[in-house]
């Protein structure tokens, strides 16, 4: 079969102040194929696809050809009209608009024929048809901000793949915040798109997906092209080697932990939403993993403990004493940290420099009476840059200019700096490359050896089993069981994760 070229990219470069994000990248994209782009955090993947989709303009000197014609998108709309769409790495829905409004925003809401009012009935019908494609069951009139991150991501995906004139759909880490079932739905749909002749550019740090969905893989490192492989025959360790330039052998570094006294007790905790009658204890010097399906109430539980959401009933005890953690500030004073999964909305201050984002949780640590000097802040950020290998031009860069994975590392640095005793991580390695993941596991291990308590929500089963000492499993808002490390098996965890849905 002769492969038909859809897109040709030649010598594309992109320079940001202080960073050469892309250096002379050339590639071809063929009709109906899935081209995987891989590379470490900051390698230039998002920058490249933003140029393809008209969000950024490339430096002078390169060119792009779409279906035989010169392609110089003037903006994202122009790219869309020419058939190139992108699903962003970060969520892009408008939080206080409804599901229907968000889905139809780009194309416009349908109007009544005679009067020019919006025809809401028709709008809902169209919106329903879009989400039906992926079998999603959402309330069309709910504001998007009330949906979980995973559901928002699915909505974003359904919006993009419903575009009929699409020739190329770019997916920048679409599965970072969703799990098994939803990923399956997406992959089924990608197969349909391929049959229709749509080409996909697919970015993911979940390396097992390369072989599942990819046809071809291109690896970038430091903004340059490293090489290309057949995704079906390549082996994953080869890809890792190309990405990081060295071999990564031990994925889950973990020392023997000796759990001490109980530091946190949660008794019969219920929230107003989803979470009911949860009880568990966490000890000094252990990693307590929290497993379960997306939507099981894991994030909600953590938010309740942290005081980000109101609790309906139940008690929380710290070191044996009941406490009322009525808001996050109080929790931070009690030396509890919460690293959230949604870095854009809840984690980072986007208009601020990196250093400020690092030190914000502990301003008083930097000077007497809480005075904060930029110089000190920059020094702190610089030290974490080295420890966590954060790729940034300088601590005085706006945090929004960092690559997705490096933004995640900034949040990580913030909570390390806060020097908390109990650290709750919600999907901490989401969007983090393999090399950096291992670095993070080492840091978590070190925290626990230093006597901290780590509570870890993860949808990555291997990661959860790899670094936890115990795993508590949530299902449909309830805690269905706690497993000791010797009893970890995927089957046991899945069984507990489904239990709460079967008993209904
Ligand atoms: N708007 C911007 N201004 C300044 N620098 C930027 C901007 N966007 C990206 N960069 C820099 O360009 C480099 C490449 O970033 P990019 O977002 O393309 O990486 P990535 O491969 O997508 O990484 P990740 O896997 O973490 O998402 C990084 O060093 C980043 O800090
Ligand atoms: Mg990216």
CATH superfamily label of the largest domain: P-loop containing nucleotide triphosphate hydrolases
What's the domain count?
A: 3
CATH topology of the largest domain: Rossmann fold
The CATH architecture of the largest domain can be named as 3-Layer(aba) Sandwich
So what's the CATH class of the largest domain?
Alpha Beta
Quickly count the helices: 17
Give the strand line-up of the largest sheet.
6-7-8-3-9-10
For the biggest sheet, the summary is: 6 strands, mixed
Could you describe the 3D structure shown?
The chain is an alpha/beta fold. It has three domains: 5-244, 3-Layer(aba) Sandwich (Rossmann fold), CATH 3.40.50.300; 261-335 and 421-432 and 449-504, Rossmann fold; 347-419, no CATH class. It is 33% helix and 24% strand. The chain contains 17 helices and 20 strands. The strands form four sheets. Strands 6-7-8-3-9-10 form a six-stranded mixed β-sheet, with helices on both faces. The chain has a six-stranded mixed β-sheet with strand order 16-17-18-13-19-20, with helices on both faces. Helix 6 (180-195) links the parallel strand 7 (168-172) and strand 8. Helix 13 (374-388) crosses helix 14 (404-417). The radius of gyration is 23 Å and the shape is globular. The N and C termini lie far apart (52 Å). The mean pLDDT is 89.
């Amino acid at each position: 079969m002769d492969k038909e070229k859809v897109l040709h990219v030649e010598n594309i470069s992109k320079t940001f102040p202080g960073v050469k994000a892309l250096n002379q990248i050339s590639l071809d994209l063929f009709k109906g194929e899935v081209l995987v782009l891989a590379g470490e955090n900051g390698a230039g993947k998002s920058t490249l696809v933003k140029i393809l989709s008209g969000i950024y303009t490339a430096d002078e000197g390169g060119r792009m050809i779409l279906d035989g014609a010169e392609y110089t998108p003037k903006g994202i709309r122009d790219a869309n009209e020419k058939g190139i769409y992108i699903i962003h790495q970060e969520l892009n829905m408008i939080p206080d608009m409804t599901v229907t409004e968000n889905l139809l925003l780009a194309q416009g809401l349908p109007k009544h024929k005679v009067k020019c009012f919006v025809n809401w009935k028709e709008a809902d019908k169209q919106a329903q048809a879009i989400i039906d494609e992926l079998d999603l069951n959402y309330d069309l009139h709910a504001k998007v901000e009330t949906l979980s991150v995973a559901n928002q991501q699915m909505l974003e995906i359904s919006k993009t793949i419903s575009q009929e004139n699409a020739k190329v759909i770019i997916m920048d880490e679409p599965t970072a915040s969703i799990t098994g079932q939803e990923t399956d739905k997406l992959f089924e749909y990608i197969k349909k798109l391929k049959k229709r002749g749509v080409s996909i550019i697919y970015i993911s740090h979940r390396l097992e997906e390369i072989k599942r969905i990819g046809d071809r893989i291109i690896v970038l490192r430091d903004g340059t092209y490293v090489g290309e492989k057949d995704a079906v025959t390549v082996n994953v360790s080869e890809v890792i080697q190309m990405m990081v330039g060295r071999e990564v052998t031990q994925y889950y570094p973990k020392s023997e932990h000796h759990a001490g006294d109980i530091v946190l007790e949660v008794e019969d905790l219920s929230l107003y939403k989803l979470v009911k009658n949860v009880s568990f204890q966490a000890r000094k010097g252990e990693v307590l993993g929290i497993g379960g399906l997306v939507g099981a109430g894991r994030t909600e539980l953590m938010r309740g403990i942290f005081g980000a959401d109101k609790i309906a009933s139940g008690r929380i005890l710290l070191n044996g004493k009941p406490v009322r953690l009525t808001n996050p500030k109080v929790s931070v004073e009690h030396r509890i940290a919460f690293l959230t999964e949604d870095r854009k909305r809840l984690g980072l201050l986007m208009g601020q420099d990196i250093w400020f984002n690092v030190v914000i949780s502990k301003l008083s640590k930097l000077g007497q009476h809480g005075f904060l000097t930029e110089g000190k802040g920059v020094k702190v950020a610089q030290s974490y840059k080295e420890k966590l290998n954060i790729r940034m031009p300088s601590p005085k860069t706006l945090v929004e200019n960092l690559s997705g994975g490096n933004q995640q590392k900034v949040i990580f640095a913030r909570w390390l700096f806060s020097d908390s005793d109990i650290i709750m991580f919600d999907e901490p390695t989401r969007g983090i490359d393999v090399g950096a993941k291992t670095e993070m596991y080492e840091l978590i291990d070190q925290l626990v050896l230093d006597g901290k308590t780590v509570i870890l929500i993860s949808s990555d089963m291997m990661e959860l089993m790899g670094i936890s000492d115990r795993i508590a499993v949530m299902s449909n808002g309830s805690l269905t069981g706690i497993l000791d490390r010797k009893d970890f098996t995927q089957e046991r965890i899945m069984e507990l994760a489904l239990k709460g849905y079967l008993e209904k």
